[in-house]
What we know:
Elements: H1 23-42, H2 48-58, H3 61-81, H4 89-115, H5 122-147, H6 155-182, H7 187-192
Helix pairs in contact: 1-2, 1-3, 2-3, 2-4, 2-5, 2-6, 3-4, 4-5, 5-6
Amino acid sequence: MALDILPSDGDGSRLHPVTPRLAPMFGFALLTVSCALASFAFACATPFAAFAVVAAAMLPLRPALLVVTGAWLVNQSIGFGALHYPIDGSTIAWGFVIGAAALLATAAAAAVLRRLPQGRTPLMLALTLVAAYAAYELALLAATPFLGGEAAFTAAIVTRIGLTNVAWLAGLVAVCEVVRLFDPFGRKGVMSA
């Protein structure tokens, strides 16, 4: 059974769990709540590549970047406020690098979605995740000569975080599908009017 989140109306690169006018608010709520959960569960391994793919698939680029920025702010607030990250130059700099990497991943996801053929397949989102995750990890790796942390880029760690992003993407798409199916925001009534 194919997922019906991806519409057949010529905009096959987008997730549509809610009406377009509610999509920015829904995307913001979905990703900030997810980011809060992930931040407490994984601290520094928040799945920003998966968040980037969902934001880029649900929204145009500018609102997607704003939604991912909101998720990053939630992550940093939890990190420094609740998880007591050390308040030093290196930790703060890494926080900004993570934010920049998340935005780069969002831009990469949006670019890939624009170039992929219109379709209704989860393969499209999987390919987009590969590109977003590569952009995210390369941006982080580029900062290591200045901030240290090269030891976090072993194959095992990068693979584990990549698989975490796969799981989160699947979960976020599932939430979008459930919302679309149950239509709590009256999408079906709006579309028929």
